[in-house]
Amino acid sequence: MEKEQRSTMLLENVVSLLSVQVINEVCSNLLKWKETTEEQLVSTVTMFYETCAVEEITLSTLLSASRLRKKYSLSYYDSLIVASALESNAEVLYTEDMHHGLIVDNRLTILNPFDTRK
Asked: What is the C-alpha separation between 118 and 29, in angstroms, rounded?
């Protein structure tokens, strides 16, 4: 199965929740690597907020992220995403940039949806 088909099937079967940090990273990369106008960027951000629940970063998120960095050796930005997932009571965090199969705090599993290992 192709990568695009797997990602489409994945999105059809989950509630879409994003950390605002994910939106930040998408926008940063669009500006850095693509010829993206401000109008396109505003449209992208608006689309995220219209189609997904967005978990904002709070003091609690920042403190939790600090604990997660110490415990799991996560990067600063990855720890914010994981902390947001935990705060929203997510059971699975889909990402291709973190430790596939890691279980965080015995309640959040990090999975790479493009990993072909069984």
From this structure: 31
The answer to whether the beta carbons of residues 82 and 74 sit under 8 Å apart is: yes
Per-residue pLDDT reduced to its tens digit, 9-26 = 555 655 688 899 999 999
Could you tell me where the DSSP H helices lie in 13-108? 20-33, 38-51, 59-72, 76-87
CA distance 61 to 63: 6
Q: Give whole-number Cα distances, 60 to 17, 55, 57, 75, in Å.
A: 18, 12, 8, 17
DSSP 14: S
Determine which helix (DSSP H) or strand (DSSP E) holds 9, and give its type and residue range: helix 3-12
d(CA 94, CA 61): 19
Poorest-pLDDT segment among 30-34, 88-92, 107-111: 30-34
